[in-house]
Amino acid sequence: MSSTAPHVLVIPSPGQGHVIPLLEFSQCLAKLGCRVTFVNSEYDLKRVMKSLEGKNYLDEKIHLVSIPDGMEPWEDRSDFGKLIQSFLPVMPGKLEVLMKEMNEREGEKIDCVIADVIMGWALELAAKMKIRRATLSTSSAASLALAFSIPKLIDDGIINSNGTAIKKQAIRLAPNMPAMNSEQFFWACVGDLPTQKLIFDFMVDNVKAMKVTDFLFCNSTYDLEPASFTMLPELLPVGPLLASNRLGNSAGYYWPEDSNCLKWLDQQPPNSVIYIAFGSLTVFDKIQFEELALGLELCNRPFLWVVRPNITSDTNDAYPEGFHDRVATRGRMIGWAPQQKVLSHPSIACFLSHCGWNSTMEGLSNGVPFLCWPYLYDQLLNQSYICEIWKVGLNFDKNKSGIITREEIKNKVDQVLGDENFKGRAMELKGKALNSIREGGFSYKTFQNFIEWLKS
Fold first, then answer.
1. Model's pTM, two decimal places?
2. Which of 211, 205, 226, 214 has its CA nearest to residue 92?
3. Which among 137, 67, 61 is positioned nearest to 100, based on CA atoms?
4. pLDDT digits (tens, 9 = 90+) for 262-293
């Protein structure tokens, strides 16, 4: 093994929310002297390269390669159940061929495989090939603690062997951890019962693979989730994984970033702008989309709203009639934002978010209060952290028709921006999060120890 430049192979789960933190982790490794082969699906790699539009934000030590995911280019990859069924028969075999070819080339022998926590088969493949291995959770430590607690949840009669809640109840895995609704565990938040069972069984298999890995990492910090890390002592923090921490640019997005919005933010008063972004998967029907638009209009505050091309189920223009004209002087809608740069801008007052873990870490690391609009998976758990444990944001209440109304949006915006305690607590968490990656912090030490292990 090379003592100066270990070669690591990194494989994320298909999906932007997984590619971004794994690519950021790879950037950190490259900065510390490692050579990285980053294995995307063919579909993901094309989207990432297209979004970069010729801009090379990656360290020269990172080599991007791809393997097929078993799906046709036009198929819907937001259906995670279908994605699992497609990539499991295809990706393991293709990755094994790729790894064998690398190991046969001079100077390309793989020293370690680093896999997403939901790519446990890649860890099993590395073990089969006698290659050292590590895994990274792109969700919270609490989410991983929940997955590791599945046998106990079954023994305690909270869920059955299919992962279905036996009865609706709120639980805490440990004191000071966020409350979890047994009917809203992340495997039960999407699709029909067969899909939920598929995802549950898939998660059980991944936990087995994680238990025999050499290192188990999480994009979080000990100070943000002390109870969760105490409950799962083998889990090591490496977060927050942010481009700004290494003074670089972020990569891994699927849509080209509209950097002109930063110039628009420069023209807004400090601490005045509502930033609205719902990640890569959230989809609204026309009624809820219109109500959100009218709620932002009703707030009568500057706002920057990320509206993906596929954010609504309606193929026609979903905006309320005359909306653009009425908000032209204070509202800006864009297709995709350089989110980390937006959240660090002094004009941002709060973050109306789907509460994906990447967005949660980015908001916390910039001291921004939240308005929580979770959609699926672990986002409900992250909302519990934000509202109940950290107390840096508020959630929205739906009406009897299941709609978050324009009046509710204005009410919660006014509450968060009218109470300086939200901002004060958010700034305290920012300090804790950033201390983790500074010299002497938990995440800093974890990286240093891992690099020493790779070079040993």
1. 0.92
2. 205
3. 67
4. 999 999 999 999 999 998 878 888 899 999 99
Q: How many CB atoms lie within 10 A of CB 97?
A: 11
The tokens of 326 are what? 């009425």
Q: What is the DSSP string of 186-247?
A: GGGSSS-HHHHHHHHHHHHHHHHHHTT-SEEEESS-TTTSHHHHHHSTTEEE-----GGGGT
Residue 102: burial class (beta carbons within 10 Å; 0-12, 13-18, 19+): middle
Distance linking the first and last C-alpha atoms of the chain: 8
| CA atoms of 160 and 155, how far apart (whole Å) | 9
SS3 291: helix
**What distance in Å separates the CA atoms of residue 292 and residue 410, rounded to the nearest whole number?**
10
**Burial of 399 by CB count in 10 Å (0-12 exposed, 13-18 middle, 19+ buried)?**
exposed
What is the 3-state composition of the chain as percent helix, strand, coil, each rounded to the nearest 5? Answer: 45, 15, 40
Query: For residue 167, how many other CB atoms are within 10 A of its CB?
Result: 9
Tell me how far apart the alpha carbons of residues 114 and 90 are, in angstroms, rounded to a whole number: 19
Residue whose entry in the numeric block shows the structure tokens 């989110």: 339
| Phi, psi dihedrals of residue 331, rounded to the nearest 5° | -115, 145
The neighbour count for residue 92, using CB atoms within 10 Å, is 16
Instruction: Provide the β-strand partners of residue 371.
Output: 352, 394
Backbone angles phi, psi at 436, to 5 degrees: -65, -35
CA distance linking residue 175 with residue 86, whole number of Å: 39
Q: What residues contact 406, with CB distance under 8 A and at least 6 apart?
A: 291, 292, 294, 295, 297, 298
- 30-66: per-residue pLDDT in tens? 988 899 999 999 988 888 887 776 666 677 889 999 9
> What is the C-alpha to C-alpha distance for residues 91 and 68, in angstroms, rounded to an integer?
6
Q: Which residues of the chain have pLDDT under 70?
A: 1-4, 53-57, 246-248, 253, 314-316
Provide the token pair at 175: 């004191």
Helix (H, G, I), strand (E, B) or coil at 114: strand
Q: Is the dihedral of CA 367, 368, 369, 371 positive or negative?
A: negative
Burial of 411 (0-12, 13-18, 19+ CB in 10 A): middle
For 119-178, what is each residue's pLDDT tens digit? Answer: 999 999 999 999 999 999 999 999 999 999 999 999 999 999 999 999 889 999 998 899
